[in-house]
């Protein structure tokens, strides 16, 4: 079971299938897919995706950890953070997304810092993220969480890295 993670304004709650309906609304803006591709998922598609994520990775050496971001003050879900941990490498690949109405308020950065802090208490030695080179907001989130851009690329995105140990 994944832990709850608390920050000053946020609760990162372990993903549940029941979050799909609310999250479909949070993630409904097509602009959220500008750098990642694809289109907003319907509630049914998100339900199916969340069922797969909650079931976990079929590879026992890989852990899929997913949280929804709850903004305590407003009492609503505003996005997600995730970490895919590869045991053999003690590596966590992280990602985040915050719905358009809540962007520009430091929520993604706060959530990413909370996640990276939590990962530091786990058996993770390195945190990485892959960010589109034109996505300045996501680069700022990564930097605020202590990751630094590298010269490495993967699928057209820059690899950001933070050693933890």
Can you lay out the helices and strands and say which pair or pack?
Elements lengths: L4 E2 L3 E5 L5 H7 L16 H13 L6 E10 L4 E11 L4 E8 L8 H13 L6 E6 L4 H9 L3 E7 L2 E7 L2
Parallel strand pairs: 5-6
Antiparallel strand pairs: 1-2, 2-3, 3-4, 4-5, 6-8, 7-8
How would you describe the overall organization of this protein?
This protein has one domain: Aminopeptidase. Helix content is 25%, strand content 34%. It is built from four helices and eight strands, in the order ββααβββαβαββ. The chain has an eight-stranded mixed sheet with strand order 1-2-3-4-5-6-8-7, sandwiched between helices. It is globular and about 35 Å long. The model has no long low-confidence stretch (mean pLDDT 95).
Number of strands: 8
Class from secondary-structure proportions: alpha+beta
Low-confidence stretches: none
Based on the coordinates given, report the CATH architecture. 3-Layer(aba) Sandwich
CATH homology superfamily name: Gcn5-related N-acetyltransferase (GNAT)
| Total of DSSP H or I helical runs spanning 4+ residues | 4
Query: Total domains, how many?
Result: 1
In short:
This protein is α+β, with helices and mostly antiparallel strands. The chain is built from 4 helices and 8 strands, in the order ββααβββαβαββ. It has helices at residues 20-26, 43-55, 107-119, 136-144; strands spanning 5-6, 10-14, 62-71, 76-86, 91-98, 126-131, 148-154, 157-163.
